[in-house]
Amino acid sequence: MRPAYLSAARDLQLGREWAVEGDQPRAVEAYGDALRRLRALPPERTRDILLAHVHLAFYQTLALVGDATGQEHLHIGVSYARSTRDPLARAIAEECLSGLDVVM
User: Fold this and answer.
1) What is the tens place of the pLDDT at every residue in 87-104?
2) Cys-Cys with 73: which of 35, 58, 95, 96 at CB 3.0–4.6 Å?
3) Which structural domain, as residue segments, surrounds residue 79?
4) Tens digits of residue pLDDT in 71-86
């Protein structure tokens, strides 16, 4: 299982880097790869924290280009951030929600 977490974390990292560089298609592909890896794993805290981060990064990347399909990723990411109580995921979720006038 550990290699799957490391691969998913690497996909997340690459996706964030590509999003910052303006390569949204590659970023979205990397996030999709991370989601596929994580969804194949049994539920546990580490997986759920990574899922929160991937979904929130997906939302942020899609929001940059004005793609409304990111709302589902926001909803799921916030849900995982709440349930895992990971401080970083919660902070990212709050930042994403701050522009939407929604309180976590």
Assistant:
1) 999 999 998 888 654 443
2) 58
3) 2-98
4) 899 999 999 999 998 9
What are the residues whose beta carbons fall under 8 Å from the beta carbon of 34, sequence distance 6 or more? 7, 8, 9, 11, 12, 15, 50, 54
Q: How many domains does the chain have?
A: 1
Judge whether 80 and 51 are in contact, CB under 8 Å: yes
pLDDT tier at 66, thresholds 50, 70, 90: confident
Query: CB–CB of 69/54 below 8 Å?
Result: no
Q: Which helix (H) or strand (E) holds 49?
A: helix 45-64
Residue 18 covered by a domain: yes
Q: What is the mean pLDDT of residues 11-38?
A: 95
